[in-house]
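User: Sequence recovery, please. Input:
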């Protein structure tokens, strides 16, 4: 019997595609973060173009290591899986343990934490006198996966998650836009890639600026590698832009599009693959329950 006549074969093929995109989003984020390590904070044009996964940079990271964007994302993902919901108090405590003890980091240290995040964790709420960074944007992927196919709950949870470290209305709107775009990409719908932030960029908001650069790179290129290297080689805050670009491009192209040697070198790769698979399982169970079908 051909796959066209066998619904079970079609279902298995669909799950395999989703698995590739889920893994692509999470590993793409981390590899993008790691690729940018060598040129983080560097002035554009002051360095030889990055073409490989190098490590080094201001934190002297080993090859395949990553900094705050991936660490916070993994903390969020583990919270979602262990709590079974978007529990902002649990997220905040996990972030604090990372800040204090390096829990969940690539090197056992808290690296790259921004002033806005540090103040929000210390006070238990964002400091309204400090401009938001793009940290909430960078950790969108786990929620887009956890709430896959459920846009109302996704938007609700994205607002809660962003509020842990962000206070600006524009930041929340940008995170919502990216969450919907990422969800569509995970489902195989990624045209057009240009989201609301590209059409109306608030230059005074960091998340809007980062999302515009990341989505533009994906829209202008034809592979995961091209898109991420384009933003990495702009230097500056390349880590957060590459993390955002890497998760979107990973959802679009799938994990196989990320160079194998880079995936192999990625620290905690197997744990990330397990997390992505667990998020997919949770999403499939929720979709089955919503449709009234058995989840097993």
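Assistant: Recovered sequence (296 residues):
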């Amino acid at each position: 019997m051909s796959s066209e006549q066998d619904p079970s074969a079609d279902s298995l093929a669909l799950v395999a595609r989703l698995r590739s995109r889920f893994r692509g989003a999470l590993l793409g984020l981390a590899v993008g973060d790691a690729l940018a390590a060598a040129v983080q904070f560097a002035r554009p044009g002051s360095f030889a173009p990055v073409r490989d996964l190098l490590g080094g940079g201001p934190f002297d990271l080993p090859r395949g290591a990553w900094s705050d964007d991936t660490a916070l994302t993994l903390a969020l993902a583990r919270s979602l899986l262990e709590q079974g919901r978007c529990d902002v108090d649990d997220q905040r405590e996990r972030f604090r343990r990372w800040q204090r003890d390096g829990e969940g980091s690539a090197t056992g240290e808290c690296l790259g934490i921004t002033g806005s995040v540090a103040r929000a964790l210390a006070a238990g709420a964002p400091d309204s006198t400090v401009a938001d960074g793009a940290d909430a944007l960078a950790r969108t992927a786990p929620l887009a996966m956890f709430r896959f196919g459920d846009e109302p709950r996704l938007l609700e949870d994205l607002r809660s998650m962003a509020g842990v470290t962000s206070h600006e209305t524009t930041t929340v709107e940008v995170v919502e836009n990216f969450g919907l775009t990422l969800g569509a990409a995970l489902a195989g719908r990624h045209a057009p890639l240009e989201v609301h932030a590209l059409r109306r960029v608030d230059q005074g908001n960091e998340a809007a600026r980062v999302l515009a650069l990341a989505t533009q790179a994906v829209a202008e290129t034809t592979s995961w590698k091209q898109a991420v290297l384009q933003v990495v080689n702009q230097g500056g805050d390349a880590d957060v832009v590459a993390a955002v670009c890497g998760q979107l491009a990973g959802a679009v192209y799938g994990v196989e599009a990320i160079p194998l040697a880079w995936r192999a070198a990625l620290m905690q790769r197997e744990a990330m693959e397990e997390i992505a698979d667990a998020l997919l399982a949770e999403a499939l169970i929720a979709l089955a329950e919503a449709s009234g079908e058995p989840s097993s």
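The chain has one domain: 28-291.
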